[in-house]
């Protein structure tokens, strides 16, 4: 089987470095986590596929399953699209800061590709997880596809189980960072942040509350707690909530942190900080802000905030007409 190869419609990274990507698995006795590591490189070559899979048939199936869950037919057309990264290129640099990324509930990891590639182009290593058994479809190391089950956001038992699996996945990935192919020996374990979209934001906040390795958190239109699942924790590390044009999740009213920033994106939707808006996501998911502007605004906001709070750079925070800072 063959599929047409073409560039991705997702906006290109804004940084100065070329980008590499390697897909791999990290495991323990109970879970297998499939991750994509995006990183700076000095070489360009064969582009990595946008849909992380080993062959066209698998790409087609992952794209179709993801399109059905996201109710966005354009996602199904991404099989054959190329990512803004070279496959398994050598890494450039050493002691690189790390961003561990978690997608939204039942969302595929490729929806965070644009943000991950942009961070990599600015000198970060972005490690994006798929949450096996929840994501629409994940290719396992033996070639099998693990399909996600029914999604029940109103079922507290289901949501507790998903959060437990997600935090387990995060712990495995943090433990295995030094063993990741290509990038593992070049990571700085003292400079690790987490970025999560929606339920991935809750995953990031709850993980940070119990794991001191995570030094800063960015939540992309997510929550600090979830009723019947997890209460908002108290953190002593910096947190950025980057929300949509809607009011933030009510759990943030109970959140306590010594360094909390909140910004929102005018005319944005729940998926504004993800690739869905470039893949045909409608106003109900992406708001009315054009996808190219959404990418510029959200990527710049995340990167500049991480530079300030994890790298210690004395730089101004991002300013755009669409970006509203509610703190500081």
From TrEMBL:
Recorded hits in InterPro entries, A to Z, give: AB_hydrolase_fold
Keyword Hydrolase tagged? yes
According to its UniProt entry, one GO biological process term is: lipid catabolic process
Q: Name one Pfam family in it.
A: PAF-AH_p_II
* Example GO molecular function: 1-alkyl-2-acetylglycerophosphocholine esterase activity
Q: Which UniProt keywords apply?
A: Hydrolase, Lipid degradation, Lipid metabolism
User: Per its record, how is this protein called by name?
Assistant: Platelet-activating factor acetylhydrolase
Species lineage, top-down? Bacteria, Bacillati, Actinomycetota, Actinomycetes, Mycobacteriales
